[in-house]
Design goal:
With about 400 residues, this protein is α/β, with parallel strands linked by helices. Helix content is about 40%, strand content about 20%. Strands 5-4-3-2-1-6-8-7 form an eight-stranded mixed β-sheet, with helices on both faces. Bound molecules: adenosine monophosphate. Adenosine monophosphate (AMP) binds next to helix 10 and helix 12.
Amino acid sequence: MTATATRVLVLNSGSSSLKYQLLDMHDGARLAAGLVERIGEETSRLAHTPLATGGDTRETEGPIADHTTALKAVAAELAADGLGLDSPQLAAIGHRVVHGGLQFTEPTVIDDAVLTEIERLVPVAPLHNPANITGIRTARALRPDLPQVAVFDTAFHTTMPEYAARYAIDVATADAHRIRRYGFHGTSHAYVSRRTAALLGKDPSEVNVIVLHLGNGASASAVAGGRCVDTSMGLTPLEGLVMGTRSGDIDPAVTFHLKRVAGMSEDEVDELLNKKSGLIGLCGDNDMREIRRRIDAGGEDGARAQLAFDIYIHRLKKYLGAYTAVLGRVDAVAFTAGVGENAAPVRAAALAGLEQLGMAVDEDRNAVRSDEPRLISPEGSRVAVAVVPTDEELEIAQQTYALVSA
Ligand code: AMP
């Protein structure tokens, strides 16, 4: 790395997508951002926004066969803006990796041994890690000399005490198959809990925060003095809150029932619980805006949307109560991600009736729309309630840069 190398490319590889951002860690500026969708299909699409120049988003459609082709297309877009991957100003590439198991508790510079370890975790993250591995391999092939760093979604949760991370099942079976609660969205929970402490003018070590990451996927975490002590997602992202398409907590016997009585296959049950449940399963919509619109329109359809909303809120309240008990003292509740940052009715409903826990929402403050972290609790509230926009790309870039510039 040269003295002038301050840029970090952040890559987030999904099974058929590649999201990226190029940031300059000298001043935190975002130079470019984009997305390749539907990789492997005839109708792949690349949307690239040259943020450094303020130019318009450039979209290209046409078949992009695989992640290697996708990253090459991204590299060409960046090069067209004078930001190519061969630039001496590029310090590193930071990769989002979903599952780091128990061994990866920190961001890690990727070498062959690290890549082998990430591959060994595929059985516990079959839906996510293979795509991340493809992204890493592709980027290493393009710039073998450049440091590449893995930032794990699970890392922030590795501080959970054993009694929170273990399921109450036979220990030998659990250990043989690495079955335990790992948690996800860790990069977001880490970033938001730290930003919440800053909003209160405190050091993270001084505050206990409940973070509610409410996007299409959703998870809650209890963070005590900057360390995660519990989180709602488990072995996979299926556990916990009601999500856009996932059921969240469910009696595991439901799965036996679906197989034995409803005659569904393993894959069908998997698909039902991960893709056809949650809000979409309950009311046919997973977008909270649409659900609120249907509630406001009323009638029978509105009642169906209302029931989905109520189930979503009821689960949130249960986690707020549980994590209050886990933490003992709660200084702040922070809402983040698509729903948490934008849906004022969700925030108001989740905290309604929780005054005994010291939690409340000020109606006027809650109605304010902003991209900035802000408080929405009434003046003098025992528990500060905050809206803190998450920024996983910035967090990945910061962790990556801290590691390679140390
Ligand atoms: P994320 O996964 O964090 O990108 O969040 C996506 C979800 O955020 C969408 O499915 C919507 O349900 C929700 N969302 C986004 N914008 C709004 C909004 N203005 N009001 C309510 N919900 C929103």
